[in-house]
Every structure is written in C-alpha cells, then in structure tokens.
C-alpha cells in the first residue's frame, strides 16, 4: 500500500518510473535507512545511528516547535507588539549545559563500539585486500590462494542496450568467500591510488592506501551474500569496482579453498602447453576486452594523453621484452597484470596487441615465455 | 575624480572604491554560481536514472571536481568578500577599506584564476578529475596534465583571499568611527573579523599542500608517494587542516548576515549579543582541532579517533547557542516576512538540519557507514546551500535597496524564495536516504535501488536552478527600474548603514559619524 502511495507521488511529479524499472522488481526500492547488517558490530553501529537520530529529532521538535509557534503568534500582521528583552545569562548557561549532557550520553556507547571495532586481535583467518584501479585482489594469507575480483556487469547494461539485472553494478566475476562464525581479519592496502573497501552489511569501511596496511575485521553469523562498493574516489571507474562477499559454513569454505588450490595447479600445468597463433589471438582478444579496454578502449585508440593508444604504440610494435615488462609490471598509471593474468592469458593478450589494431609485428608469444620472463630468464 | 566614479571601463579596472569593488565581487560570484550550477546540473542529469546516458565517467569526475571548486572558491567565498566590501566600512562608519589599492588587486586576480581553471576543461586529458579534495596520489602521479594549471589557479585564489582578509582586519581594527567599540560592532563585522583570521591562518596551508603536489609532480620529491618514502595520508592531514576551517570560513559570515536580518524583521534587538560573539570565537578556535573527522576511515590510531570525535561533538555546543539565540530573538517579536526574512528563517531551520546530520557524522563508528556516501553530500549541501547561499541571497535582498536606491519586487522575491526552498529540499533531502541506503558519492552510475531518490533529486535540482534565473532577473529589474527606496528602507532597521541616503553615495562617512 505504502509502496503504491509512493509511486503515485512519483507519478504526480510527472514521471512514471514503474515502466522504466519494471525489470527491477526484485530490487529493494525507496530504502530510507541504514542497514542493520549481519554482525554484532553492524547492529551496534545501527543502534548508535538511531540513538543520535532520535536525539536530533527531539532537539528538532523543541527548536522548530518554538520557531513555528513564534512565527504564528508573534506576527505584526496579527497585532503582535515587540518585547525588548535581549539577554539572559540563565538561558545561555542552560542551553550550553544541556547539549553537553546529551553529548556525554552519546559519547559513552560510541566510545565502547569504537574500541570493539578497533580490536583486530586473534583472527581465525587473514585476508589481504588490495585495491587496484578498478578491481580488488584478495589473498588468503599463508593459504596459497589469491585472485582478482572485478565488475561483471556487461557494458551493454551500463549503456542501456540491454535490460539491467537486479545486481546491476554490484556483481563480480569472483566473489570473496569467507567462513561464517569465524573472526576474519582484513589487511587492507592498495597498489596505485587510495580506494576504500566498504561492505555495509558488515559495517566495514576502511581506506586502502598504497604503502600502508589498514586492519579491520568481521564475524558473520549467517551464510549469505553481502554486497558493497569502493568508497573513495579512485579515478575513472571508481563507480565500477564493487565488492561481493559470500559467507559460507566452514566445511563449504574448506571445500572451496581446495578447489581454488587445484585451479591454481591447473593454471601452472596449462602454462606448459604450446598454442597456435590463432588460439593465442582469439583468447587474447577476449582478455583484452575484459581487462584492457577500460583504459586502452575497445578500438585500441586509448584516451590520450592519459591512456596511450595500442594502435601504433611504439612498445606494442617494438621490443618484445619491453612489452612483456609493461604488461606484467605496469608503470606510470598502467597497472601490473603479472599476478592477475595467467601465463596463458598474458601470452595471448600480448600476441593480440602486437597483431591487432593495424599493428603488424607478426610475432607471437608462448605461455612458457611468460613463466621464464617472471623468473628473470 | 575625487568626488565621483570615473567613466567607462577604467572605472572598474582602476577603482579603489569599496562599493565598486564590492559590486564586482558580487557579480563575479554570481557568475561563478551559475557556472558551478551548470556543472551540478550535468551531474544531476547523468544521475537522473541508472545507466550511462549523457557523459562518460571520465568527464563526470571532471564535473564533480569543477563544481565543488567553483562553488567553494568562486561562488561562496567571493560573495562574502563582496558583502564585506560593501557593508563593513558602512557599518563601522569608515570612509573606505584600509588598503584600497590592494583591494583592487585582490579582486582583479580572481577572474584570471578562474579563467585558467575553466580553461583546463579544453586541455588534453581534461580538467581536474580528482574531486575538490584532490587526494594524492590520484591528484599527483595519476592526475591529468592540467593539474599544474589547477595548482597555479589555487595559488592565485589563495593570494586573493589572504589579501582580502588582511584588508578586512586592517579596516576593522583601525577605521572604526569614534565610539564604535569592539563590543558595539554589528555581528556581521565581528564574524568577518574572525573569518579573516581563519583565512590568514589556513590559506597558506592550502598553498603549501598544492606546492608539495607541484614538487611531487615536477621536481621528483615524494611527499605523498609511499614508493619514495612519503605518505599519502599526510596529504589528507594537511588538506583538512585547511579544509575544516574553510567550511567555517564559508559559514561564519553567514551567521553575521542572519544576525543582522532577523532583529530587523522581528523588530527586537538580537538576543545574547555577547554570547553570539563568544560562540563565534569558540567555533573558530575549535575548527582548528577537528580536521581529522574527515578521515575517520584512514586508519588512525584509536586515540586519534576518540580525540577528533570528542572535539567535533563539542563544536555542536556553540553552534547550538547561535541557533537558540536566533530563535529567542524571534520570540515575542513583531514579525513580518519580507524576502530577506524568509531566507533567514529558512537558513535557521535548514542549517540546523545540516547541523543535525553533522552531529550524526561526528559519531566515529557511525561515520564508518556514512563516510563518502550521499549522506555526506546531503549534509554539506544542507549547510552550504541554505547556509551560505541563502544567507548571501538574504543579504542581497536586504541591502540591495541601499546599494542601488531602488526597492526590489516583493512578489518576485517571494516566488524566488519558494522555488529555491522547495527545489533545495527536493534535491538534497532524498540524498540522506540514498546515502543511508548505501549509495557512495562521486559515482556516475548506480544500482536501481537508488533510482527513485536520485530521480527526485534531479528534478529538484533543475527547479533550484530555475529559481536562480528568477533571482537574476529580479535584481536587474530592481537596478534598472525599481521603485525608489527610502533611506531607512526597513521599518525595523538599525545601524550606521541605514543613516546614509539610498542609494549610498559614492563616498560615505568622509567625516566619521559619532557613535553613542
Ligand atoms: C544547484 C544547486 C546544487 C546542486 C544541484 C548540487 C549538486 C551536487 C551533487 C549531485 C554533488 C555530488 C557529486 C558526487 O559526489 O557525485 C555535489 C558535490 C559538491 N557540491 Fe554541490 N550542488 C549544488 C550547489 C552547491 C553549492 C552552492 C556548493 C558550495 C557552496 C556546493 C558544493 C559542493 C561540493 C564542495 C561538492 C563536493 C565535490 C566533490 O565531490 O569533490 N554545491 N553537488
Ligand atoms: Cu574507488
Ligand atoms: Cu570538518
């Protein structure tokens, strides 16, 4: 009912949204308040938020009440005569002291919660979270598992060529999986500019700062999928680097970790194979569109001067080792892809760049060359 | 020459007259307000619905950055300097500003600064795109080449502000009419005196931080680059040491304007004059020790978090005192609601709402959820738009008859007020909800769950924009063809500025008045 009344209101504004977002039925709309979240800390923070909110409402009722009363009662049009008082030490002291008391009442629970949030000791699991322009890397400390997580919403949805799914801009190719009922500590840092890792349901928001490691933690009781976004302006695609956390029971978590380790072994195995030029080119094109087009653009023309063109690029047409070095190790605004791409993917995308967009070196690269390069051979 | 303005363009280029310079500041700031407003409307048009329709993310970031910079440094600050130029000498019975040639210079470098800033939009790589807070290393290693022009522009703006501030302090401390003791000065003069000290204290810090950026970008230093042994968080500390007092620079003179207007239309003296002065001074002092409340999520040690949380909450106390004093001034008055009063009453109500959300933001653990969301955007617009902008507007309506000798059209003034009031609340109130529901700021696209509030915001923004065109029309019509105003202008007005004829002659108080 309320929902209908509200959309009526929107309609009155001369806009009919219902048709436009018909697809988004399973999206929670008209959200007005902070989430209570799914952890102890998040519920405490929600409590603080509501407490201070109600204090504000109470003060507002008094102040605005007096104002409205006086604006009605003390109008010249209604024959009001102006009084002449203009000082009262008692009043001044009163409205200095009362707010101070309210603040002290608020500050005590806030301090307690803050101490709790800052207690990152004795974690059961450590995850290193690294912000990159514009994706996240998750590394399970001492577990030999690490991967990148980036936006999986297709460009067609963003440019309105396809209907938008319910998790539009809040979906990723690889979710961060954590165990429930475990204290998980996040060690948060960044590789290029400052980002901020924020998941509202966990009430975790911490800046990811290059060269520094910030700590934060969570303890999730219920399995579920919790979505968040980068919360610090980090350049062009700041709005397009979401976070998805999937909390699962410990047993499921262990199984998942094992699968990840096996996948890593499979990648190492794959690096030993030899591919044909056409295979490399085709796979390279896919990698390019997924990882490189955001900056160098789908047509290889880049956005000079910030993002150079690949078409006609001196590096993509020049020394092979310089090219590999640039892609694996980055530099000057170009992110390093050495850890993010598998050797097969790296070999493929480099081969692609050297032979696409009018580049015509004819050269190709095998996964083993990448492995060797990484080992300094 | 000695007794009237020169003819033609040289009048404006060479003028050392505080009234001419005040007018130029005000017109310039209005132009910047429109420019910044256009940038805001580009943002709101893109955010009208989910998806990318009008601009690309790269350009969107340039729009948010330029909007913030132009509004803060181009619209609000010069407008208050303009009001100070016009009113401070007239309120204290001085013939002009203490340093009239410097006054000319501090205005005339501004158009160059902003022309340079605006020109970056046409440069290769585009305009600054790192937010008006320009956090390093996004604004250094990763910045577009135009950042160097941005730095130069900021230097010029800073020089202009510092010169303006020196001038205001020199005027207030040296040129008061006999009998005008400090504690007899109108509150507008007091708030500007304190603001001027804030400016002198923090503009050099801003100059310092952009210079460090310049060194990092061009001269191989690593102040803010961790790879070279520097510290990106240092940038934020230095920036906000400037930045927080800066927000009080934009609001203290507003307190002064409103403290002049409310007593006039309540026909009752300002309640608690002395406590208003002390509250302003305490706010100014506290503003130096709260800067890191903008940095609760950077990972400060807990002692730092607690200190900045407590200090920030403390600021609410003197701010509350001000609000209570205004309300008590209205209480048992004999009120009328002409346009300046409407804007002032709206100021008190809406600024208080902005203060409430500020209080919420001060709770550090809760700030972990609010920080860098639309809740913050709602908060600072509630203090800046109905705060700074409404008070400036109120001041213009209030003193315009004194400046040009003609009365503005009351009906149109009221229409302007209601359009602005409704437009503003439609724009910014829903941002609280979008922010709490989880929408980060500075994003060009968003999930459908934020769509409804954003659509309302965008409609409100265009209404607010339209209201400003009405304002422009009303002011021009008043100057060109308004009805003649009386010297006193308002029934309840008090103060030296109302003792001179309307329009105020080119030179006022050549012989100082006697203040009893
Ligand atoms: C027509 C009225 C206005 C509208 C519709 C408007 C709209 C907006 C919007 C939508 C943003 C958020 C950008 C984002 O985070 O994605 C923004 C940011 C901002 N606005 Fe406004 N605004 C208006 C007036 C003002 C005024 C009068 C001021 C200053 C006195 C101001 C100062 C700022 C600042 C400092 C920012 C932050 C910029 C940044 O993120 O770096 N705005 N504005
Ligand atoms: Cu970001
Ligand atoms: Cu602040």
TrEMBL record, chain A:
Principal place of residence: membrane
Domain Cytochrome c: 279-357
Domain annotation Cytochrome oxidase subunit II copper A binding: ranges: 122-259
Record has Ribonucleoprotein as a keyword: no
Localisation: Cell membrane; Membrane
Cofactor(s), names only, from the UniProt record: Cu cation
Record-annotated Cytochrome oxidase subunit II transmembrane region profile domain positions: 26-121
Transmembrane domains' residue ranges: 52-72, 93-111
Its EC number(s): 7.1.1.9
Statement: the UniProt record of this protein carries the keyword Membrane: yes
SUPFAM superfamilies with a match to the protein in the record: Cupredoxins, Cytochrome c oxidase subunit II-like, transmembrane region
Secretion signal span: 1-24
Membrane topology: Multi-pass membrane protein
Recorded superkingdom: Bacteria
UniProt keyword list: Copper, Electron transport, Heme, Iron, Membrane, Metal-binding, Respiratory chain, Signal, Translocase, Transmembrane, Transmembrane helix, Transport
Reaction catalysed by this enzyme: 4 Fe(II)-[cytochrome c] + O2 + 8 H(+)(in) = 4 Fe(III)-[cytochrome c] + 2 H2O + 4 H(+)(out)
InterPro entries in the record: CcO_II, CcO_II-like_C, Copper_CuA, Cupredoxin, Cyt_c-like_dom, Cyt_c-like_dom_sf, Cyt_c_oxidase_su2, Cyt_c_oxidase_su2_TM_dom
Cofactor binding annotation: Binds a copper A center.
GO-annotated molecular function: copper ion binding; cytochrome-c oxidase activity; heme binding; oxidoreductase activity
Leading EC class: translocase
GO biological process: ATP synthesis coupled electron transport
GO cellular component: a single term: plasma membrane
Family stated for the protein in its record: Belongs to the cytochrome c oxidase subunit 2 family.
Function: Subunits I and II form the functional core of the enzyme complex. Electrons originating in cytochrome c are transferred via heme a and Cu(A) to the binuclear center formed by heme a3 and Cu(B).
Record protein name field: Cytochrome c oxidase subunit 2
TrEMBL record, chain B:
GO cellular component: plasma membrane; respiratory chain complex IV
Gene Ontology molecular function: any one: metal ion binding
Membrane topology: Multi-pass membrane protein
Pfam families per record: COX1 (PF00115)
EC numbers: 7.1.1.9
Coiled coil: none
PROSITE patterns in the record: COX1, COX1_CUB
Residue stretches spanning the membrane: 25-45, 65-86, 107-127, 147-175, 187-215, 247-266, 273-294, 306-328, 340-364, 376-400, 420-439, 459-480
Reactions it catalyzes: 4 Fe(II)-[cytochrome c] + O2 + 8 H(+)(in) = 4 Fe(III)-[cytochrome c] + 2 H2O + 4 H(+)(out)
UniProt keyword terms in alphabetical order: Cell membrane, Copper, Electron transport, Heme, Iron, Membrane, Metal-binding, Respiratory chain, Translocase, Transmembrane, Transmembrane helix, Transport
Pathway(s) of this molecule: Energy metabolism; oxidative phosphorylation
UniProt record, GO biological process: electron transport coupled proton transport; oxidative phosphorylation; respiratory electron transport chain
Occurrences of domain Cytochrome oxidase subunit I profile (ranges): 12-516
Subcellular location: Cell membrane; Membrane
Family membership noted in the UniProt record: Belongs to the heme-copper respiratory oxidase family.
Role according to the record: Cytochrome c oxidase is the component of the respiratory chain that catalyzes the reduction of oxygen to water. Subunits 1-3 form the functional core of the enzyme complex. CO I is the catalytic subunit of the enzyme. Electrons originating in cytochrome c are transferred via the copper A center of subunit 2 and heme A of subunit 1 to the bimetallic center formed by heme A3 and copper B.
Protein name: Cytochrome c oxidase subunit 1
Organism: Simiduia aestuariiviva
